[in-house]
Amino acid sequence: MLRIAHRCAVWGSPIEHSLSPVLHRAAYAALGLEDWAYGRREVDTTTFAQAFADLDETWRGLSLTMPLKEVALAAAGTVSPTAAATGAANTLVRDADDASRWTAHNTDVHGITMALRVAGCVELSSLLVVGSGATARSALAAVTAPQARVVLMVRDRARPETMAQAEAAGLRVEVVAMGDWSAATGVDAVVSTVPPASVPALQLLPAVTGARPPVVLDVVYGSGTTPLQDAARARGWGIAEGTDMLLHQATEQVRLMTGQPAPLRAMASALRDALTDRAR
Question: Which residues, listed in sequence order, are joined to residue 238 by a DSSP beta bridge?
Fold first, then answer.
């Protein structure tokens, strides 16, 4: 029986729905990493510290989903600039030279950037983000144009750390009430980071009149189209898939954890197969 020399996993709560094992295992197979294993574990903020302390020397990396993106950042000895800017980490990688040290990364930014790019949004100079939590901060970090316009659509008030990140990046920030879709006029993209059922007044989403349609990215995936996607498609918007965000953030995780370029084609194929199976 083959000895497992390197272990990785996805942690979060809930976790059973996660497709990260499908993506990472497909990458290991394509790369010939026969002594690598990738699993999943139910971990929340109250159990994270002990679970993390119990990891032995075989562990190389962790993928973190909600609600662990902020506690994971605090657990790392080193923090990447992107993770520091967003105040959230979805990836922990053990240092190859110092087994006691872990580095926190945020690959959601890469995932969002690539999902928008696949949908045709190559230049992101204006953005509306629904929500203001950890994933919203990743969306803000995907905006690289100086003095870009960013709109935060929130139910009560934007989280202070999200406002601080936007201001530190030199973004021109507007805050509007949930459902005020007039603010979406002229943006390059809308990124929704909240549960689909909590996005109101979709009938007010503006219709597209220009030659290059803006793009909607709803970060959820795996349950068919969302009401926001349906409304956007009916009004001429382009659609960026949440599964593309998932795929591309995972390719960056594979690179960080294994030190090898991720096999994008093999991972994309495995993801398509898993989504097809889930839809049956």
Answer: 215
